[in-house]
């Protein structure tokens, strides 16, 4: 058996076992993509935004 055949069988086995796994649920380790229209869930976010705007205006 050549190394490439061995690798091919390993990949085929991994794909076959992956298909048998149940789909990921809410408890998965990958966080959902952020919705860029929502402000961050950080209580100081608005304060930092205002300060950043004030500094930007001062620098300009």
Helix-strand layout with pairing:
Blueprint: H1 3-20, H2 45-59
What is the tally of helical segments?
A: 2
* Low-confidence parts: none
Q: What is the H/E string?
A: HH
How much helicity do the residues have?
55-70%
Distance between the termini: 69 Å
Please state the structural category: mainly alpha
Tell me the overall shape: elongated
What is the residue-averaged pLDDT? 70
Strand content bin? under 5%
Total number of beta strands = 0
Number of domains: 1
Largest sheet: none
Computed CA radius of gyration, to the nearest angstrom: 24 Å
Gist of the model:
The chain is mainly alpha-helical. The chain has helices at 3-20, 45-59.
Provide an overview of this structure.
This protein has 60 residues and is mostly helical. It has one domain. It has two helices and no strands. The radius of gyration is 24 Å and the shape is elongated. It starts with a helix and ends with a helix.
Keywords:
60 residues; mainly alpha; 2 helices
């Amino acid at each position: 058996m050549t190394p490439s055949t061995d690798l091919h069988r390993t990949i085929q086995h991994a794909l076959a076992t992956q298909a048998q796994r149940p789909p990921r649920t809410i408890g998965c380790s990958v966080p959902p993509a952020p919705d860029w229209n929502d402000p961050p869930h950080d209580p100081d976010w608005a304060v930092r935004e205002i300060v950043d705007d004030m500094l930007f205006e001062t620098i300009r």
